[in-house]
TrEMBL record, chain A:
The gene is Scnn1b. It is found in: Apical cell membrane; Cytoplasmic vesicle membrane. Residues 629-644 have a biased composition (Basic and acidic residues). PROSITE patterns: ASC (PS01206). This is Epithelial sodium channel subunit beta. NCBIfam families: ENaC. It comes from Tricholaema leucomelas (pied barbet). Keywords: Cell membrane, Cytoplasmic vesicle, Disulfide bond, Ion channel, Ion transport, Membrane, Sodium, Sodium channel, Sodium transport, Transmembrane, Transmembrane helix, Transport. The keyword Disulfide bond applies. The keyword Cell membrane applies.
Automatic annotation (TrEMBL), chain B:
This is SCNNG protein. It catalyses: Na(+)(in) = Na(+)(out). GO terms for cellular component: apical plasma membrane; sodium channel complex. It is a multi-pass membrane protein. Belongs to the amiloride-sensitive sodium channel (TC 1.A.6) family. SCNN1G subfamily. It holds the Pfam family ASC. The gene is Scnn1g. The chain crosses the membrane at residues 56-81. Its main location: membrane. It is found in: Apical cell membrane. Residues 576-599 are annotated as: Disordered.
Length: 644, 655
């Protein structure tokens, strides 16, 4: 009982609020709050009261509505972009140069000997329908094991439902094949003249089980079919060769890079970093920034850029592997892997190619503003290109993703991509079904989509916008001495070993404006949110955070009142002796207003406040301290407080 | 109970919410009351401050705060329609654009021979006589004879002239006669004219057929340009008369143009291409035109996954006068866009592999009122003659064509036909060339108003192309490549000749990466932000809000006005009463004075309120018991803002 009393008293002490009833409390709040509307409600006449009441309600709801919009806007994490264009000293891009042809034919000839003879014979058969011509030249027996793994066939789709498939090398069917070819020529409809067959499973399994495990890749053109077939076969053969040998078979830096000049400073092939690229063999990267500091360029114009003279020795190309001749080059960021198939450009032999560079940067904010990654650590794909010590890029991610799928499904890695640990490259002997597996994986939209979904783009996207122009080089007048000097420098011989078909001049330089940077900044910060919230609240109601605190205080007060009321009600119920000591009617609202503006009505045990401070300096008698005027809490509590 | 419910309600409203004027009796009082009770900060200081200087300073400060608020808010309003740009990059599967490929030469020269032989013969003769150029001696002799015998329609219509020393005379190159030049002179390349080498100036004259004195003269510094332009005029004239089917027949078929096709690692053929006839480029073929409703997409970047085609460019069958370059033209565009291949095509070299890397950018502008662009083109008063979605180019071309039909009576050959019109030719419109040149002149000088009417489209897609060229086929692969390609070609077309590498062009179009850049404009300001900025300004300078604004409206407009009106009404009434009294001769009575300006009589409560009145407790009526009179304290006075209060503003219970 004692504890309860103490508790109640503590409650009461806490509730030194402005009133002891809800009405009182509300009126007090309206009168004293700093928000603009409520004051008017109680100050004006009844009609205005009503108007002001609705206005205040309206404004309050407007404020809340607008706040909702603002908070929503904030949570959508919008960004604004700012663009800057100009020239500044920048890191010169890393320049990768490769030959379009991966290996010197003279070096790989012994590996591809069988394959080349095979394809020559196949072409012979395709192109010369009359068998007499082909038998004229006696040739050594062909290695048909290669052929039977993936044979080239002719598909006659003249009869749509029953396409006739003819293996070019099946000796007993040669006549038939000729007939079909002839048939194609006479009919002249829309058939598929050349086709490439890829077998699934083992070669023997395919022939035994019928065509269930076989798929035919159709090509509308024989040229296309032959190229694809050759790439497949050579990939399989070359994948068995060790990396050192492959590097040896490719183009060496000293043979390829004949002259180099960066700005006014001479450079040579030693300034290039060698990297083995599966598509293009040996590639050489200038200014990769791996071991040494990246070079800066602080002047625009061709005089301050990189000038290169390359020799691609077109005579030594592998005839069936790459039909386009030229150098492949690419500009990229330091420490990134060059994906030449995607971003690379060609430079034609016998020309001078000038490339003006504009660095187009996009700097983005990371999560939650946009879904990008800074270093790829949060991407669920193992980056296989990290073995080159290169930074993350979306191309690296996609290729790694593909290779990981390939290893998972086909149990071997594709030759074009880096290997995960403990896995070998696919070849026809160890993995006879790899080509089938590869093609089904490559054309699978599902797998592509998985990779697209799991890879994220980098937050800082840098592109090198190139303005490419070309001119013939060397000119006819200067040709002789240029070839002479370059040949001499390379081979120390007076014989001219270079010609128009192999030589390429490159100029790479910054344009007058060398950067265009689009950088993002948050459109809505927390400061923005707060000032907008404040602005809205201020605009409609003249309120501030303090007003919110006031409101919270009132709610707490009303809670106390509720608690007190409930307690007293319980008590009353228990004791059955709740009587009003003052039988007069309860005071009206307006009375109470006056009561509170007049401090004489203050319920303070310690008596009234010093008059002079609280009231305007109006001389007068102090107000009577009538008991009847006392705004009284319910008697039970009143007694408690009085007891103090 | 007898009252109607409506009346009852109005009566009730009148009772509970009586209409009363402002409480302040005078404007000064009202202002004072306003300043003391307003929610804004400055005003109160003005009233409360003591001393003139201080009050003056406060007035100044308040006024400048008001000024600042107005200035800043005006600034906010003026900048309301501004847009900010955001760039988003999305890595995703991208739709492959439509790729339109044309041979630079529109029609096979061999199949157009019937129509053009006459013109070509004349051109050759002209070349021979003017420049001494001949392909074979014997031929020329014969043709010169023919020339003299038949005479030339083409030269009669548009004579080629050679000018001497900028004088007003010229030599007709056909007849050799000197003639006087009339009319205005248009220089096609005027910068070269100024170099002073007058020997080389050559041109032709276009005369108004109805009024032969009105001629326009077009000069060129080089015979190459003059002959080509002259040939083109006649060529278009001839072409306009040939039906479309014949022209399509005479142009290249898909089998002619496309040797191999490869897309995304799979073989494709002519079924993936849509034919489209371009007036100047003949048959063009659009890959992935989306015509059958499906648009191909790319999910891997890189050259292997794009479109690879080998084109057959039959150089031997080129028109020698119409086109002077060899190769193909391609354009990368959206499926909805019309390919303006003559304007923005990229040229493809033969005997080379052209690799075109694409980078996709989508842009979106805000339309009115942010910028003057159009979403669909529906609000542009120019009929779209192309059945493709709106673009600025389409609008300009359509506008010109419309003007052409209106003023020349026939349509220009290079653009589509408006309904009901037909292409210009000599026979029907002998005057069209003159008319066309005049109109084109006006169009270029922006006198036709097309540039003003046409707006740019609000959203557009752009494929930025990086083009590079490699030699193709390489020396070592040339032999087998050409043999196999000849075999391919021989299959589809029963022709058995070995192809030459200068007849072939290899083209690769691919996405460099699948990053789509989306540049969009967003409104910088929304209404919410504008209002909160207003609120910030109002709050910063004066702690004001909409409530203050309403207060101001209430006090300064409604209340002040009603006070002024009331004063005037009182004055008028007083004046009226005075007049009445003067007429009747009665002195004014106190009761009258009291009632002045009031609708209902009241007694002003001059006494200080008692405790009872303050609490509005009813006085015990007729109580027999003597009671202490309630104290008459001044502090008990009801707090009223005004010392003097008009009776009609008082609460009804108070009197």
């Amino acid at each position: 009982m004692n504890l309860k009393k103490y508790f109640v008293r503590a409650l009461h002490r806490l509730q030194k609020g402005p009133g002891y009833t809800y009405k009182e409390l509300l009126v007090w709040y309206c009168d004293n709050t700093n928000t603009h509307g409520p004051k008017r409600i109680i100050k004006e006449g009844p009609k205005k009261k009503l108007i002001w009441f609705f206005l205040t309600l309206l404004f309050a709801s407007l404020v809340f509505w607008q706040w909702g919009i603002l908070i929503n806007t904030y949570l959508s994490y919008n960004v604004t972009s700012s663009l800057s264009i100009g020239f500044k000293t920048m890191k010169f891009p890393a320049v990768t140069v490769c030959n379009a042809n991966p290996f010197k034919y003279s070096e790989v000839k012994y590996l591809l000997k069988d394959l080349d003879r095979l394809i020559e014979a196949a072409l012979e058969r395709i192109l010369q329908p009359t068998p007499g011509n082909s038998t004229e030249s006696p040739s050594p027996p062909l290695n048909l094991t290669l052929w039977y793994q993936i044979p080239l066939v002719l598909i006659d789709e003249h009869d749509k439902d029953n396409p006739i498939i003819l293996d070019i090398f099946e000796s007993d069917q040669t006549d038939k094949g000729n007939e079909t070819t002839a048939g194609n020529e006479t009919s002249g409809g829309n058939q598929t003249p050349g086709a490439n067959q890829t077998s699934g499973g083992e070669q023997t399994a395919c022939s035994h089980q019928g065509s269930d495990n076989c798929t035919y890749r159709n090509f509308s053109s024989a040229a296309q079919a032959v190229t694809e077939w050759y790439i497949l076969q050579s990939t399989s053969i070359l994948s068995k060769v060790s990396l050192q040998d492959r590097i040896r078979m490719g183009y060496q830096a000293e043979d390829m890079i004949l002259a180099c000049l960066y700005g006014a400073e001479p450079c040579n092939y030693k300034n290039f970093t060698q990297i083995y690229h599966p598509d293009h063999g040996n590639c050489y990267i200038f200014n990769w920034g791996m071991d040494e500091e990246a070079l800066n360029s602080s002047n625009p114009g061709a005089e301050f850029g990189l000038k290169l003279i390359l020799d691609i020795s077109q005579q030594d190309y592998i005839p069936y592997l790459s039909s386009a001749a030229g150098a492949r080059l690419m500009l990229h960021q330091q420490k990134s892997f060059p994906f030449l198939k995607d971003q690379g450009i060609y430079a034609m032999a016998g020309t001078e190619t000038s490339i003006g560079v504009l660095v187009d940067e996009l700097e983005r904010m990371g999560y939650p503003y946009s879904d990008c990654t800074n270093n790829g650590s949060d991407v669920p794909v193992k980056n296989l290109y990290s073995q080159y010590n290169t930074s993350y890029s979306i191309q690296a991610c996609l290729r790694s993703c593909f290779q990981n799928h390939m290893v998972e499904i086909c149990a071997c890695g594709h030759y074009m991509f880096p290997l995960p640990e403990g896995v070998n490259y696919c070849n026809n002997e160890d993995n006879p079904g790899w080509a089938y597996c590869y093609f089904s994986l490559r054309s699978s939209i599902k797998h592509r989509q998985i990779c697209i979904d799991s890879c994220k783009e980098t937050c800082n996207d840098t592109q090198y916008k190139m303005t490419i122009s070309m001119a013939d080089w060397p000119s006819e007048a200067s040709e002789d001495w240029i070839f002479h000097i370059l040949s001499y420098e390379r081979d120390m011989s007076t014989n001219v070993t270079l010609d128009r078909n192999g030589i390429i001049k490159l100029n790479i330089y910054f344009q007058e404006y060398n950067y265009r940077t689009i950088s993002e900044s948050a459109a809505t910060t927390i400061v923005w949110l707060l000032s907008s919230l404040g602005g809205q609240f201020g605009f409609w109601m003249g309120g501030s955070v303090l007003c919110l605190i006031e409101f919270g205080e009132i709610i707490i007060d009303s809670l106390w009142i509720t608690v007190i009321n409930v307690i007293s009600w319980c008590k009353g119920l228990k004791q059955k002796r709740a009587q009003a000591r003052y039988p007069d009617a309860p005071p009206t609202v307006s009375e109470l207003v006056e009561a509170h503006t007049n401090l004489g009505f203050q319920h303070e045990d310690g008596g009234a406040l010093p008059r002079g401070e609280a009231l305007p300096p109006e001389p007068g008698t102090p107000p009577p301290n009538y008991d009847s005027l006392r705004v009284r809490p319910l008697d039970a509590l009143g007694r408690d407080s009085d007891a103090e | 109970g007898a009252m109607a419910p409506g009346k009852k309600i109005t009566a009730r409203i009148k009772r509970t919410l009586p209409v009363r004027g402002p409480q302040a009796p005078t404007l000064g009082e009202l202002m004072r009351w306003y300043c003391l009770n307003t929610n804004t900060h400055g005003c109160r200081r003005i009233v409360v401050s003591r001393g003139r200087l201080r009050r003056f300073i406060w007035i100044l400060l308040t006024l400048s705060a008001v000024g600042l608020i107005i200035w800043q808010c005006a600034e906010l309003l003026l900048n309301y329609y501004s847009a900010s740009v955001s760039v988003t990059v999305q890595f995703q599967k991208l739709p492959f654009p439509a790729v339109t490929i044309c041979n630079i030469n529109p029609y096979k020269y061999s199949s157009m021979k019937d129509y053009l032989s006459e013109l070509d013969k004349e051109t050759k003769k002209a070349l021979e006589t003017f420049y001494g150029f001949s392909e074979g001696k014997s031929k020329v002799r014969r043709s010169v004879d023919e020339w003299n015998s038949t005479g030339s329609d083409f030269f009669k219509q548009i004579p080629l002239l050679k000018f001497e020393d900028f004088s007003k005379t010229a030599t007709d190159l056909h007849s050799g006669q000197k003639r006087k030049i009339e009319g205005s002179v248009f220089h096609k390349d005027s910068s070269i004219v100024n170099s002073g080498d007058s020997n080389d100036i050559i041109g032709f004259q276009l005369c108004d057929a109805n009024n032969s004195s009105d001629c326009a003269l077009y000069t060129f510094s080089s015979g190459v340009n003059a002959i080509q332009e002259w040939y083109k005029l006649h060529y278009m004239n001839i072409m306009a008369q040939i039906p479309l089917e014949t022209k399509e027949q005479a142009s290249y078929s898909a089998d002619d143009l496309l040797l191999t096709c490869f897309f995304d690692g799979l073989s494709c053929d002519k079924r993936h291409f849509t034919r489209f006839h371009h007036p100047l480029h003949g048959n063009c073929y659009t890959f992935n035109s989306g015509e059958n409703g499906t648009v191909l997409s790319t999910s891997t970047g890189g050259s292997e996954y794009g479109l690879q085609v080998v084109l057959y460019i039959d150089e031997a069958d080129y028109n020698p006068f119409l086109v002077t370059s060899t190769g193909a033209k391609i354009i990368v565009h959206d499926q909805d866009e019309y390919p303006f291949i003559e304007d923005i095509g990229t040229e493809i070299e033969t005997a080379a592999a052209t690799s075109i890397g694409m980078h996709f950018t989508r842009s979106r502008k805000l339309s009115k009122p942010y910028s003057d662009c159009t979403e669909t083109g529906a609000d542009i008063p120019v009929e779209n003659l192309y059945n493709k979605s709106y673009s600025l180019q389409i609008c300009l071309h359509s506008c010109f064509q419309k003007a052409m039909v209106n003023s020349c009576g026939c349509a220009q050959y290079a653009q589509p036909l408006p309904p009901g019109a037909e292409y210009c030719n000599y026979k029907k419109n002998p005057n069209w060339m003159y008319c066309y040149y005049r109109l084109h002149e006006k169009f270029v000088k922006e006198q036709l108003g097309c540039q003003q009417i046409c707006k740019d489209a609000c959203s557009f897609k752009e494929w930025a192309l990086t083009t590079s060229i490699a030699q193709w086929p390489s020396i070592v692969s040339e032999d087998w490549m050409l043999r196999v390609l000849s075999w391919d070609k021989g299959h589809s077309k029963k022709l058995n000749k070995k192809l030459n590498k200068t007849d072939l062009a290899n083209l690769m179009v691919f996405y460099k990466d699948l990053n789509e850049r989306f540049i969009s404009e967003n409104p910088t300001n929304t209404l919410v932000i504008l209002l909160s900025n207003f609120g910030g300004q109002l709050g910063l300078w004066m702690s004001c809000s909409v409530v203050c604004v309403i207060e101001i409206v209430e006090v300064f407009f409604i209340d002040s006005l009603s006070i002024v009106l009331r004063r005037q009404w009182q004055k008028a009434k007083k004046w009226w009463n005075d007049r009445k009294r003067q007429r009747s001769g009665k002195p004014p009575q106190a009761a009258d004075l009291e009632r002045q300006g009031h609708d209902n009589p009241v007694c002003l409560d001059e006494d200080l309120p008692t405790f009872n009145t303050a609490l509005r407790l009813p006085l015990p009526q007729g109580s027999p018991l003597p009671r202490t009179p309630p104290p008459n304290y001044s502090t008990l006075r009801l707090e009223s803002a005004f010392s003097e209060q008009l009776p009609d503003t008082l609460e009804p219970g108070q009197h």
